[in-house]
Design goal:
The structure is a homodimer of 204-residue chains. Chain A is of the alpha/beta class. Chain A contains eight helices and seven strands, in the order H-H-H-E-E-H-E-H-E-H-E-H-E-H-E. Chains A, B: Belongs to the RecR family. Chains A, B: One of its GO terms (biological process) is DNA recombination.
């Protein structure tokens, strides 16, 4: 679709069109929504955008999103510091928190090992995970990467590497449909998967 | 889905979720995109949002979007001022411009008469249309409201009202599938509809 509106409006259509999952028609609809929205609500959106860029970053300990140096979970004294649950993304933390089954800490990798898309172990927060496990206070590592190809490969890689560190490693199991996305699992399924986790460092 | 992230990020998820056509999962994906996007591109989006609010308004003559008092089409001396094409929304102007078949002016109503949703003739720029037609320089009014229920009803209403003003009134016809949305018609179909328009003020 060629540029069609006058300057500023077409500019906004283009900007919206660059966001993930927003096609040309959606971008146009959003731009017209902004045009007719009251100035206050647009200013709220602007402020929210800027606040995220200026205030939100990643927890120095676990890699989850945080507004302070550490995220709310790492700062919470009631969490069980002996267990670390390894996930791919911050939104997986949210999905697991919603089950209310898990009281330990997290470690957010920032993705999964995916050689086809050029993501190797060094591109993820794997070294930081080993550093945390290496200090001796961790009694279990739960691998909760997505049950898809790259998530399983990442779990297999981490299992192999953690075997040298003498810490029990488990993997979320029963209930999660294979090939799906952890983030979309319902609370009950995800809770069952926690209960039914099995050790995988003792196999083979 | 309950609030789940820390302050600013959840705030942005909520703000995105209020936009039309953006569900909770899309809002979350967009917020994470903003979080990891470079600050410059977010600032470009912010500036585009603000520019639309501060610079874009509606043409005093035709109701199309404009950055000056009049829109680019009304200001263009090459346009044929004897013909007015009446559409519902500014995006319909863009769709018709894309056909390159039409060289007259437009009149953007700002919607269609839709009593179920509480939109009556006084909520649209209908009085302004009559004022333009009433000055005597207009030789044809082309009704290009959407070929759906409310668009047809609006066209019927305008035909009835314009009959007193002694100006030929035509309606886009052949080619547009009934029940669809003008904005999505392809250029050829829309061009044919222009060619095949028929007078409707002489019927009944």
């Amino acid at each position: 679709m060629p540029a069609a509106y006058e300057g500023a409006l077409q500019d906004l259509v283009d900007q919206f069109g660059e966001l993930p999952g927003i096609g040309p028609k959606s971008a146009q609809r959003l731009a017209f929504h902004i045009l007719s929205a009251d100035a206050e609500s647009v200013e709220r959106l602007v402020e929210a955008l800027r606040a995220v860029k200026s205030r939100v970053h990643f927890c120095v300990t676990c890699g989850n999103v945080a507004e302070e140096e550490q995220c709310a979970i790492c700062r919470d004294p009631r969490r069980d510091r002996r267990v670390i649950c390894v996930v791919e993304e911050p939104k997986d933390v949210v999905a697991i928190e919603r089950t209310r089954e898990y009281r330990g800490l997290y470690h957010v990798l920032g993705g999964a090992i995916d050689p086809i898309n050029g993501v190797g172990p060094d591109d993820l927060r794997i070294r930081e995970l080993f550093a945390r496990v290496g200090d001796g206070s961790v009694e279990e590592v739960i691998l909760a990467t997505d049950p898809d190809v790259v998530g399983e490969a990442t779990a297999a890689y981490l299992t192999r590497m953690l075997r040298t560190m003498d810490v029990p490693v488990s993997r979320l199991a029963s209930g999660l449909p294979v090939g799906s996305d952890l983030e979309y699992a319902d609370e009950v399924t995800l809770g069952r998967a926690f209960e039914g986790r099995r050790r995988i460092d003792e196999e083979s």
